[in-house]
């Protein structure tokens, strides 16, 4: 397991097991169960993680998703 460097932000991308799970829910659970330094600064909840044609996770798409996840004006934010 790799721990974040001091000053580095923890991010999270997850696929919700059920509908209706949102970013506030994830932050609430994280604040109750994780130490402050491991709580994600940016969370994106998606129906699935973007994948390449090969079936591997599309890391570039995940990064783009996270870049827009914290922007309230973005359609990816908060859902």
Care to describe what's here?
With 79 residues, the protein is of the alpha+beta class. It has two helices and two strands. Helix 1 links the parallel strand 1 and strand 2. The longest helix is centred in the middle third of the chain and has 11 residues, at 23-33. The chain starts with 10 loop residues before the first strand and ends in a 10-residue tail after the last helix.
| Global mean pLDDT | 76
Gyration radius, in Å: 13 Å
Task: Estimate the global geometry from the Cα principal axes.
Answer: globular
Uncertain regions spanning at least 5 consecutive residues: 71-79
**Proportion of beta-strand residues:** 5-15%
Structural class: alpha+beta
List keywords for this structure.
2 strands, 79 residues, disordered C terminus, alpha+beta
Brief summary of the model shown:
The protein is of the alpha+beta class.
Give the topology.
Layout: E1 11-15, H1 23-33, E2 42-46, H2 59-69
Parallel strand pairs: 1-2
């Amino acid at each position: 397991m790799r721990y974040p460097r001091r000053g580095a932000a923890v991010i999270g991308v997850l696929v919700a097991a059920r509908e209706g799970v949102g970013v506030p829910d994830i932050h609430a659970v994280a604040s109750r169960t994780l130490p402050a330094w491991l709580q994600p600064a940016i969370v994106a909840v998606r129906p699935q993680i973007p994948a390449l044609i090969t079936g591997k996770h599309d890391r570039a798409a995940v990064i783009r998703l996270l870049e827009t996840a914290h922007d309230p004006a973005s359609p990816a934010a908060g859902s």
